[in-house]
Structure formats: structure tokens, C-alpha cells
């Protein structure tokens, strides 16, 4: 969304003030009490803590869709995160929600992802399932901000507010209190605030449009196929061509992607405002007790979103080029996981010390999840050297 788009929110979109998470209140409480900052709100402080964390910096070296062997021009997990944050803040502004909370949640929403994107996550999850465990990037992100980040003398982790920690856990998934008693502090029987609900679909808007652009730039997605199979893109492209009949095809493509993003965001803003109004929702408590998530697309836009996503799976994510890279990534994760679970003495000292408490599988998963693509590839190359027969 451009600046001009942000300054002209859909008419009547702003929600009752009570629907937003207040800048000061119970959700700004921290596990370890800290004095108020002289000029920053609690959520503004959280935003800074996320941005300055090691986990956030490592996102620059983690795959979004394309590994660096394709090009340095494609999105990394970090640049994707920045785009989600921009979209989320713009929509929160249009709806009159807490922009600082929405932006902070967007910045933190992917810090729990391992290297190699979703392929790395699936590989870790498959490996842990053999030990009766799971890998969940939301729950791993919570572990990162609660304990893994070591920056402060007064407390472990980042000591983020309750509102941010709840949003990290619940923005894209509803957890059962029976299955996850360790998450009881995060109101599992209640809906997340609207700011957290917004992040899940801001993420969808960001990657649907960005992956369309990167896939086209990589030569995997074809303009003719996009126009034939993706109604959302086709309408945006025809609108752009009607306005700029003499423009180059690449510029029309760029314009179509921009219009896709604005169409999705505008629809989400308007539909969310309508659902709030129709439901008579005026307070955060009513948001929490609503029978379903309030932040949604209209049924028609949801259909087009699903169509776009299915096309990206068919033509991009499951393409031979990407599947070959994903297969290599999975093998790397599996090899190193098996090696270190079998021989935890090979782990760095800080991780070895946790094996007796957490068990080798969980500790090894934590170690791998923190790696960048480049670092895990280096570790795998070193491991391969140890597998060669002596004298080979």
C-alpha cells in the first residue's frame, strides 16, 4: 500500500475505540516488572526489542521461497517480514486499531522459522514426530522471546508485554488448553485481539502478491497463465492496461501486483468494519468472546484468495525447480538432526548443557531452527567430510 493509499482508508472503516488494545493496560504488563519509559509506550519498546534481537537479524539469511542460488533480488524471510509489518500497520491505521501492537506482532511473526522456509519447518517437525514431539514456529518464537534471546542483565529473553506474547502464540492458530497447558496464561479459551487477528491475513496478502512477483521474475510463473487462472490478477492487469494502454508489459505486471495488494487490503478493512458493526461489537471483551475470528475477507474475496493461493502451489511452490531445492534442504536438516541427536556431545556447550533438561531431540531442533541457510549448509558440508571413508 502506497502512502496515498494509507491516507485514504475506506469510508466508515474505523472501528469503535474500545475494540483496539489500549496503549496502557493489562496487556502491557511484563513477566518481569520494569519502570515506564520516559517517551515510549510499552508496545513501542517491544517493537524495538524485536528489531534489535538476534533472531530478527537472522531472518535476513533465511529462505522465504527462493534460496540465494536463484538471485539476491528475491525476498528473504526478513524482507517478507518488513512487508507484512507495513501492510499490517496501514490496515490497523485504517481501522483505528493499535498500530504499534500490530506492527510489533508483524515483525515478530516469523522469528521462529527455521532455515529453508516451510521445507525446513516440515523437516524438523517430521524428525521430532519420531520422538513424539512437534515443531511449531509460533511456539518456537515464544521460546525465543521468553528465554533464548540473552540481552538483559535483569531477566532472560526480551520480557515482552503480555499482548505481544499472546499475539505471537495466537495470531494464526487456535491452541487447545487441554493440549497446551503451558500456554494457559494466553487466554486460550478467548479470541485474540483484532490486532493479532489482522497479522495472519496481512501475512497472506504480503506473500500472495510478493510470491507472484518473485515467481514471475524467476521465469517460473507465466503472464498468460496468471491471467487465465488467477481472477484477482487478471482483473488487476486489465484495469492497469485500460489505464495505461501503451505501457510495457513488465510495467503492467507491476501495476497489477500493486492493485492486487490494495484490493485484498481494502476488502479486508471494509469487511472487518462491517462485521464489527453488524455484530454490535464495541469492546475488546466482545472481540474476545465473539464465536469466530472477526478479521476476514468477504466471501467473494476469500474465494479469489484461495484461487490465487492454489495457483501458487500448483505453478510455483510445487514446481520442479523449487522442489529440487526443497528436497536438498530436507536432506540437510534430516542428516544434521540425526547426527546431533545420536551424538549430542558434538553440540556447542550452551546446547549440550540443556540436553539433560529438554532432551536431545528438542535441543537439536532448537539449535537447527536458529540457523541461517548459509550456516546450516556450512555445518552440513563439514558433516559430509566426516562421512567419507579414511583415505578416500
Descriptive notes:
- With 392 residues, the chain is mainly α.
- The chain folds into two domains: 3-323, Hypothetical protein af1432 (Orthogonal Bundle), CATH 1.10.3210.10; 326-387, no CATH class.
- It has 18 helices and no strands.
- It has helices at residues 3-6, 42-51, 54-58, 77-95, 99-108, 117-129, 137-148, 162-170, 194-217, 223-229, 231-243, 249-278, 284-289, 299-317, 320-342, 349-358, 360-369, 373-387.
- The radius of gyration is 22 Å and the shape is globular.
- The termini are far apart.
- The relative contact order is 0.13.
- The model is unreliable at 1-7 (pLDDT under 50).
Describe the global form. globular
Largest sheet: none
Oligomer: single chain
How many β strands by DSSP? Answer: 0
Structural class: mainly alpha
Beginning-to-end CA distance, first to last residue: 57 Å
Q: In angstroms, what is the radius of gyration?
A: 22 Å
Note the run of SSEs as H and E.
Answer: HHHHHHHHHHHHHHHHHH
CATH class of the largest domain: Mainly Alpha
| Poorly predicted runs of 5 or more residues | 1-7
> Do you know the CATH architecture of the largest domain?
Orthogonal Bundle
Total domain modules? 2
What is the overall number of helices?
18
- Helical content band: 55-70%
CATH superfamily of the largest domain: Hypothetical protein af1432
Amino acid at each position: 500500500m502506497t502512502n496515498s493509499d494509507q491516507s485514504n482508508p475506506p469510508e466508515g472503516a474505523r472501528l469503535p475505540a474500545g475494540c483496539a488494545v489500549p496503549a496502557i493496560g493489562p496487556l502491557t504488563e511484563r513477566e518481569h516488572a520494569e519502570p515506564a519509559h520516559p517517551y515510549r509506550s510499552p508496545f513501542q519498546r517491544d517493537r524495538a526489542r524485536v528489531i534489535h534481537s538476534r533472531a530478527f537479524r537472522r531472518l535476513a539469511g533465511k529462505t522465504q521461497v527462493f534460496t540465494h542460488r536463484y538471485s539476491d533480488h528475491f525476498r528473504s524471510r526478513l524482507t517478507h517480514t518488513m512487508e507484512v509489518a507495513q501492510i499490517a500497520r496501514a490496515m490497523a491505521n485504517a481501522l483505528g486499531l493499535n498500530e504499534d501492537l500490530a506492527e510489533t506482532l508483524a515483525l515478530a511473526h516469523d522469528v521462529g522459522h527455521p532455515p529453508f522456509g516451510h521445507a525446513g519447518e516440515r523437516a524438523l517437525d517430521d524428525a521430532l514426530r519420531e520422538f513424539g514431539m512437534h515443531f511449531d514456529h509460533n511456539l518456537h518464537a515464544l521460546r525465543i522471546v521468553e528465554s533464548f534471546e540473552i540481552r538483559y542483565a535483569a531477566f532472560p529473553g526480551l520480557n515482552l508485554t503480555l499482548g505481544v506474547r499472546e499475539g505471537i502464540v495466537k495470531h494464526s492458530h487456535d491452541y487447545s488448553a487441554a493440549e497446551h497447558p503451558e500456554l494457559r496464561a494466553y487466554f486460550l479459551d478467548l479470541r485474540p485481539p483484532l490486532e493479532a487477528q489482522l497479522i495472519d491475513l496481512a501475512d497472506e496478502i504480503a506473500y500472495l502478491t510478493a510470491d507472484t512477483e518473485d515467481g514471475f521474475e524467476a521465469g517460473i510463473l507465466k503472464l498468460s497463465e496468471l491471467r487465465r487462472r488467477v481472477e484477482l490478477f487478471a482483473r488487476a492487469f486489465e484495469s492497469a492496461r485500460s489505464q495505461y494502454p501503451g505501457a510495457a508489459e513488465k510495467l503492467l505486471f507491476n501495476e497489477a501486483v500493486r492493485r492486487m495488494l490494495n484490493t485484498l487490503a481494502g476488502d479486508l478493512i471494509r469487511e472487518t468494519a462491517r462485521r464489527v458493526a453488524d455484530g454490535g461489537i464495541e469492546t475488546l471483551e466482545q472481540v474476545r468472546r465473539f464465536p469466530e475470528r472477526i478479521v476476514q475477507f468477504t466471501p467473494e474475496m476469500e474465494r479469489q484468495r484461495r484461487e490465487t493461493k492454489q495457483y501458487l502451489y500448483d505453478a510455483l511452490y510445487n514446481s520442479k525447480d523449487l522442489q529440487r531445492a526443497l528436497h536438498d534442504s530436507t536432506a540437510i536438516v534430516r542428516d544434521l538432526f540425526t547426527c546431533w541427536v545420536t551424538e549430542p556431545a558434538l553440540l556447542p556447550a550452551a546446547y549440550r548443557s540443556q540436553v539433560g533438561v529438554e532432551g536431545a531431540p528438542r535441543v537439536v531442533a532448537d539449535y537447527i531452527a536458529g540457523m541461517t541457510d548459509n550456516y546450516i549448509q556450512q555445518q552440513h558440508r563439514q558433516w559430509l567430510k566426516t562421512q567419507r571413508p579414511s583415505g578416500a
